């Protein structure tokens, strides 16, 4: 028994549209009579076929167009006339051009697939999902890339345990393109290596700076926050030119944690001397239930239709309480989408950290 193909599958066939167009031309040719010269119009079939399907599909549509041209030339008693040969030459040239266009399209599609595979691999390497808890800290993270070709960009985050507390980094590489992804990889690798073992938080920043100097072209800088949360709730942070974190206390208070003395972005700290100034560390004591919201400027610089920036403290702050950190971040993402009413035009990374020494084993 022959199985009929669903109409939807027929519509998705790469030959359906060019065949339909050529049949439409044939119907018009039959209705208008021999006084009209529609023979060259059959070249529309292979031209349309170049937009979808393999090269052999274009060649097939060119053959069908030539066959229809001959059939209707004979029907109109024009077989062997000059206009028939002119139409066949036109169909031949259009088919050759369509074959070339289809070959270029397929090459581009293959490159795009390769880029997407690389992007997926990079995402797996750069953005290993954070555990829901490390030591006395509960964690939630979210990342959105503005690029439609890749799912990763120049924003990054990471959290690791250490003998001195949980260490965190969130950062934003200046610029766009593959160079930003390379810088992000360098920062993450340096943090993963030094974060769990360096005795002082400032040393972690120095190693990130050294890694950038060794492994990049020196044309990019990275804003970021390097932080540590101790078992007793002591919060230490170096703010390298990054948007200030938002603190939501257990009793519902909301305020920004502004640095006492900001540190230049990674890649530029050499302008202020070697390494991170140790006296510029921001100190804070967290209490059980307090939550710190760290984010990149893809969130704080999101705009609505009138060009107003997203008010992080007014809109995101009230959404950070209750439920799990992951669920709170989903609420923030939904609120940003409602505020802007459009797709994001910049990468954004979000990190929500809750000090919960009694809740986390």
From TrEMBL:
Residues 137-355 form the PPM-type phosphatase domain. It comes from the Bacteria. Keywords: Hydrolase, Membrane, Transmembrane, Transmembrane helix. Its EC number is 3.1.3.16. GO terms for molecular function: protein serine/threonine phosphatase activity. The chain crosses the membrane at residues 54-73, 85-103. InterPro entries: Bact_Sigma-Reg, PPM-type-like_dom_sf, PPM-type_phosphatase-like_dom. Gene3D superfamilies: PPM-type phosphatase domain. Pfam families: SpoIIE. SMART domains: PP2C_SIG. The keyword Lipid metabolism does not apply. This is PP2C family protein-serine/threonine phosphatase. It comes from Streptomyces sp. JL1001. The lineage of its organism: Bacteria, Bacillati, Actinomycetota, Actinomycetes, Kitasatosporales.
């Amino acid at each position: 028994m022959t199985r009929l193909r669903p109409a939807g599958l027929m519509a998705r066939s790469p030959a359906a549209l060019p065949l339909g167009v050529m049949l439409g031309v044939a119907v018009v040719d039959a209705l208008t009579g021999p006084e009209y010269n529609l023979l060259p119009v059959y070249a529309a079939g292979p031209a349309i076929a170049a937009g979808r399907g393999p090269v052999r599909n274009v060649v097939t549509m060119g053959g069908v167009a030539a066959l229809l041209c001959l059939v209707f030339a004979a029907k109109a008693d024009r077989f062997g006339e000059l206009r028939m040969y002119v139409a066949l030459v036109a169909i031949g040239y259009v088919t050759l051009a369509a074959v070339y266009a289809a070959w270029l399209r397929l090459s581009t599609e293959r490159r795009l697939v390769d880029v997407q595979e690389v992007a997926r691999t990079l995402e797996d390497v750069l953005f290993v999902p954070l555990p829901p808890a490390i030591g006395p800290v509960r964690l939630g993270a979210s990342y959105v890339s503005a690029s439609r070709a890749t799912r990763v960009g120049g924003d990054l985050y990471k959290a690791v345990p250490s003998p001195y507390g949980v260490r965190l980094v969130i950062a934003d590489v200046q610029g766009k393109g593959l160079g930003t992804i390379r810088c992000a990889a360098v920062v993450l690798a340096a943090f993963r290596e030094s974060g769990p073992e360096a005795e002082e938080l400032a040393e972690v920043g120095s190693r990130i700076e050294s890694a950038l100097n060794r492994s990049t072209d020196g044309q990019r800088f990275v804003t970021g926050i390097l932080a540590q949360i101790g078992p007793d709730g002591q919060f230490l942070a170096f703010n390298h030119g990054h948007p200030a974190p938002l603190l939501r206390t257990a009793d519902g208070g909301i305020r920004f944690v502004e640095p006492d003395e900001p540190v230049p972005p990674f890649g530029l700290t050499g302008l202020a001397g070697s390494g991170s100034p140790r006296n510029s560390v921001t100190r804070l004591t967290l209490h059980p239930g307090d939550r710190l919201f760290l984010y990149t400027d893809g969130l704080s610089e999101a705009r609505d239709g009138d060009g107003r920036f997203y008010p992080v403290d007014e809109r995101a702050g009230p959404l950070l309480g209750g439920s799990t950190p992951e669920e709170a971040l989903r609420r923030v993402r939904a609120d940003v989408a409602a505020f802007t009413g459009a797709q994001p035009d910049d990468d954004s990374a979000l990190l929500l950290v809750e000090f919960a020494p009694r809740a986390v084993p």
